[in-house]
TrEMBL record, chain A:
InterPro entries: AAA+_ATPase, ABC_transporter-like_ATP-bd, ABC_Transporter_VariousFunc, P-loop_NTPase
GO molecular function, one term: ATP binding
Domain of life: Bacteria
Keywords: ATP-binding, Nucleotide-binding, Transport
Originating organism: Oceanobacillus piezotolerans
Domain spans labelled ABC transporter: 2-224
Protein name: ABC transporter ATP-binding protein
TrEMBL record, chain B:
Gene Ontology molecular function: any one: DNA binding
Signal sequence extent: none
HTH gntR-type domain: residues covered: 9-77
Domain of life: Bacteria
Matching CDD domains: WHTH_GntR
Tagged with keyword Mitochondrion: no
Name by which UniProt lists this protein: GntR family transcriptional regulator
SUPFAM superfamilies xrefs: Winged helix' DNA-binding domain
Record keyword Transcription present: yes
Keywords: DNA-binding, Transcription, Transcription regulation
Length: 229, 122
C-alpha cells in the first residue's frame, strides 16, 4: 500500500500541496483527479522522491521512501523520455541495461498487445503510438506499483481504448496503479478508487463501485457536485 | 460477449444481470464453463476486482459453481434456472407497467396493443 500522509509542498511562496492524504492499494487502480494545475503531478513526483516535500510523510508498504523504493515502484511521465532517433527496440534495450527489474518477455508481449514493431523509430510514431511506447517501457518493469501521469491525455480515441484495455489485462496483473487524469469518461469502469484533488487538498476519496451501489451515482456525478462548490 | 454498461449502477450488478439474461435465455447452457475472472475483465473491459465481485455474488446466489481448482460453471439446477427466468420476467413486467401506467390507458386496450405488438415483433 502507498500511504500519503499530510504532505505539503511549496514552490516559492505558492503552496501547491496543503496537506494531501490518501492511500492506494496493491491490486487496485487509484485515480487522482483534478482540474489542471492542482498538483497531481507534484503528488506523483513526491511519491517518487523526485521533489522534496516540506512536511508530511509517504510510506510504501509501511516503509519510508528511499532509494530502495525504486525496486518497488516506477513513474511513467506524460511524455516519452527516449531520444527521437532511437527505435523502439533500442529504447527497450536501454531500459534493460538500466533497470534490473526489466522483464523482456512482458515487454515483447506489450509490443504485440499494442501492435508495435521494434524497428520503428520514435520520431516516426503517431502521438498515440508514442504514448503506448512510453507506457510499455514502464509496464515492462517488474515493480509492485506504477504511477502514470496523464496516460490518456492528448491522444486519439482508439489509442485511449487500447491503453485502457491494458488495465483490464494480465499485463497489469495485481499491481497497484495510480493514474492522474482530468478526463474520466473512458475509464470510469476500470478504476477502483477515486481521489479528488482541488486547491492542494483532497476534497473527496471514495470507491467507485461503492458510490454507485450506495448512492446510485456515477463518478462524474460526484465530481460535478464536488467541483461546483 | 458485449455489454453496454450504464454509469450509475454498480458494474458488478450489471455483470450479474448479464449472466442472468444469458442463463434464462439459454445463451449459457447449464453446466457450461464460464471465463476466468481475468478473461471476463478483459472481454468486458472492466476492473478485475469488479469481475471477482460479480463471480462471488453469483456463486452465493447459486448461479455458478466451482469444483476445486476447475473453471467455474453455470448452474445445472433447473429450479434455479427457472427462478432466474421468473425474476427477469417479473422485472420486465414491472418496468413496463411503471412506464405505461402514467399514460392512463385502459387495461383492455393495453392488452390488445401488447398482443398485437408482441406477435408482430417476433
Amino acid at each position: 500500500m502507498i500511504e500519503v500522509k499530510e504532505i505539503t509542498k511549496r514552490f516559492g511562496l505558492k503552496k501547491v500541496l496543503k496537506g494531501v492524504s490518501f492511500t492506494a492499494n496493491k491490486g487496485e487502480i487509484t485515480c487522482l483527479i483534478g482540474i489542471n494545475g492542482v498538483g497531481k503531478t507534484t503528488v506523483l513526483n513526491a511519491i517518487m522522491n523526485l521533489t522534496p516535500i516540506q512536511s508530511g510523510e509517504i510510506l510504501i508498504d509501511g516503509e519510508k521512501i528511499s532509494k530502495n523504493s525504486y525496486e518497488k515502484i516506477t513513474f511513467i511521465p506524460d511524455a516519452i523520455t527516449m531520444l527521437p532517433q532511437m527505435t523502439i527496440g533500442e529504447s527497450m534495450q536501454f531500459m534493460k541495461d538500466f533497470y534490473k527489474s526489466w522483464n523482456q518477455a512482458r515487454a515483447k508481449e506489450l509490443l504485440d498487445f499494442f501492435k508495435l514493431k521494434e524497428e520503428e523509430k520514435i520520431s516516426s510514431l503517431s502521438k498515440g503510438n508514442t504514448a503506448k511506447v512510453n507506457l510499455l517501457l514502464g509496464l515492462a518493469l517488474d515493480v509492485d506499483y506504477l504511477l502514470m501521469d496523464e496516460p490518456f491525455s492528448g491522444i486519439d480515441i482508439f489509442s485511449r481504448e487500447q491503453i485502457a484495455d491494458v488495465f483490464t489485462s494480465h499485463l497489469v496483473e495485481d499491481r497497484g496503479v495510480i493514474i492522474t487524469t482530468h478526463e474520466i469518461n473512458d475509464i470510469e469502469h476500470l478504476i477502483d478508487k477515486v481521489v479528488l484533488l482541488d486547491e492542494g487538498i483532497v476534497i473527496k476519496e471514495f470507491n467507485a463501485e461503492e458510490v454507485r451501489e450506495t448512492e446510485g451515482r456515477s463518478v462524474v456525478d460526484v465530481m460535478r457536485e464536488v467541483y461546483k462548490r | 460477449m458485449n455489454v453496454i454498461f450504464n454509469k450509475r449502477d454498480p458494474v458488478y450488478v450489471q455483470v450479474v444481470r448479464h449472466f442472468k439474461e444469458q442463463i434464462a435465455t439459454g445463451g449459457f447452457e447449464p453446466g457450461q464453463e464460464i471465463p476466468s475472472r481475468r478473461e471476463l475483465a478483459s472481454r468486458l473491459k472492466i476492473n478485475p476486482n469488479t469481475a471477482q465481485r460479480a463471480y462471488k455474488e453469483m456463486e452465493e446466489e447459486g448461479l455458478i459453481f466451482t469444483e476445486g481448482n476447475n473453471p467455474s460453471k453455470v448452474t445445472r439446477d433447473e429450479q434455479k434456472i427457472q427462478a432466474v427466468r421468473g425474476e427477469l420476467i417479473s422485472e420486465a413486467i414491472d418496468s413496463f407497467v411503471e412506464s405505461i401506467r402514467p399514460i392512463r390507458v385502459p387495461l383492455e386496450e393495453v392488452i390488445g396493443l401488447l398482443k398485437e405488438k408482441y406477435e408482430k415483433e417476433r
